[in-house]
Design a protein that fits this description.
alpha/beta; manganese (chains A, B); magnesium ion binding (chains A, B); binds 3-isopropylmalic acid; metal-binding (chains A, B); ten-stranded mixed β-sheet; about 350 residues
């Protein structure tokens, strides 16, 4: 197979971890006779520094014209504590999601056997947990009109949703539930928000097409609690953009480290693969960042193009790295291995 | 002391648990010579059933003219799954918060020694955790304009905040931090939301009045993760309405049961005390609901009026109940004690 992949290393530890993902893909390409062509481009704080624009035109064009996008991480603290910054790295990511129409972000959550002890949760709580979060990614408060009055004393964010936006991701989520344990939990705040009530209504309607899937509803406050009390109750979780942002980071504790979780964002035509962790600027250049989430993002990319066997070789390699404790310090505080070594281990295993 | 207390038992298990809180207050009154006069009124689904209005005029007037409000719980599933219901129990609660000007909801989080094992989190993660969440309660998406178009295919919720709304709760939170470990963590989504950037700016400004308090910032997705990974890092958490709703329910897992957590909501003139759990309709009338959060809400009420000694007697009584395992099934699955027995134990101990 021939794939052209846009690579956006981004900020902080992004470039280091993405390098390992590329190494894994190269190795897969050699062994299984695929050609992966990588084209790098700027996005995020690095793009602002070099061009003034967090998503340069060139980057966007590249992404629109490749088979897939592989993203590192975005964000720099110099923008976070400056409420007056007019241009911010995250704008690049949000614009990319919007322009590529990546309306569904999908995050699988499942603890690794060998890492069960490194979760803050007790073994009996997480052992056997296995669910997927479907987060709507191009709507809600992320993209609604924002205002700040002239005096800078009053601000607003508008959260909006349409039936169409809800319907398309709901179908994806129900289809996924059909292939899994046939349970879908819609998370919202329908006792307070109008948009949540629309979600409930539309999802109920979509559910009629999937009579074999059991649908239930949880308020987001309760869901945030249930994720920790009893994560095994979940199969597929469906929710809006901001709730999905919060819940999927929270759910990462189940796996023992956010450094282990990849996600895929899907649109009608495009697909973007990334680790769910942030740019972790404190670790930049120190060879301590966990590359596993990025390598797993590459594996999700392979699966997306039907290269299931190849993806599984990567999963296997990562399981071995974990088993042999070739892992970074987030998983083993006294580990002697760094980003590079973990990446090398994985690509050598392939 | 003479106190006139409006009692709103509300829905589901509300009446059962509130009864135990009243018993505890009666006992305190007798032993320490205070007169507590309770006046009951309707709010929530019960109020809709009887009057068509989730917060009848009479209830509101009563609350405006008493020293404090003691609330059970609000909510009924028959409204939750009916996106077309025009009147909902929660509207009563939200209106009450608004009319009483209860802008700050304060939820202390601290595990009970005797219950450490009943948390889904490992002992070493939660032992020693002790923090308080300050949640803004009368602003944000809860109270902004809501729209639904005529065809019912497009909905919106507006999240708004003003400098003034942020300033007043920020002062409360900083003052509390000064009396504690002098650390305040502001939780927001300033990389995406305009209201969050306003929060950050205003809180930074207010912080200048409290140079002894260390201020830091966390994005809400990261905060949802950090609460579980390392809750001991927190002292005072300050956040807006919806984030506070999610995080404080999530944080309840640290204490082992949401049935143990009370909260106080403060305004300039009024104060409302309640358990943080919901109406738990499945348990209604079964004598299995945990009354401890409600009894603790009563203790917070006493503290609020300077009756510290009396409040501590209640804390002691509850510790004993937990120590002797006179607790409901949420804390001890094979427990033979119910709501009533736990309440009796506590009031007899006083
Ligand atoms: C960086 C930020 C804008 C982004 C988001 O909130 O969507 C991130 O947290 C994520 O989840 O991908
Ligand atoms: C019942 C509901 C409207 C309420 C809220 O969201 O504020 C509840 O969850 C709470 O936290 O008091």
């Amino acid at each position: 197979m021939n794939l052209k992949i846009a690579v956006l290393p981004g900020d902080g530890i992004g470039p280091e971890v993405i390098l390992q993902a590329k190494k894994a893909l190269y190795a897969i390409g050699e062994v299984y006779n695929h050609e992966f062509v990588f084209e790098e481009a700027l996005m995020g704080a690095v793009a602002i520094d070099k061009t003034g624009n967090p998503l340069p035109e060139q980057t966007l064009n590249l992404c629109l014209n490749t088979d897939a996008v592989l993203l590192g991480a975005i964000g720099d603290p110099k923008y976070d504590n400056n409420p007056n910054a007019k241009v911010r790295p995250e704008q690049g990511l949000l614009k990319l999601r919007k322009e590529l129409g990546l309306f569904a972000n999908i995050r699988p959550i499942k603890p690794y056997k060998a890492l069960i002890e490194s979760s803050p949760l007790k073994r009996e709580i997480i052992e056997g947990a296995d669910f997927t979060i479907f987060r709507e990614l191009t709507g809600g408060a992320y993209f609604g009109t924002k205002t700040l009055n002239e005096e800078g004393t009053h601000a607003s964010d508008l959260c909006e949703y349409s039936e169409e936006e809800i319907t398309r991701i709901a179908h994806l989520a129900f289809k996924s539930a059909q292939k899994r344990r046939k349970k879908l939990t819609m998370v919202d705040k329908a006792n307070v928000l109008e948009t949540s009530r629309l979600w409930r209504k539309v999802v109920q309607k979509v559910s009629e097409d999937y009579p074999d899937v059991k649908l239930d509803f949880l308020f987001v406050d309760n869901a945030a609690m249930q994720l920790i009390l009893n994560p095994k109750q979940f199969d597929v979780i469906l929710t809006e953009n901001l709730f999905g942002d919060i819940l999927s980071d929270e759910a990462s504790v189940i796996t023992g480290s956010i450094g282990l979780l990849p996600s895929v964002s899907l649109g009608e035509k495009n697909a973007l693969f990334e680790p769910i962790h942030g740019s972790y600027p404190q670790a930049k250049g120190k060879n301590i960042a966990n590359p596993i989430a990025s390598i797993l993002a590459a594996a999700l990319l392979l699966e997306h193009f039907g290269l299931t066997k190849e993806a599984h070789v990567i999963y296997k390699a990562i399981e071995k790295a974990i088993e042999y404790k070739v892992v970074t310090v987030d998983l083993k505080p006294d580990s002697k291995f760094g980003t590079n070594e973990v990446g090398e281990f994985v690509s050598n295993f392939i």
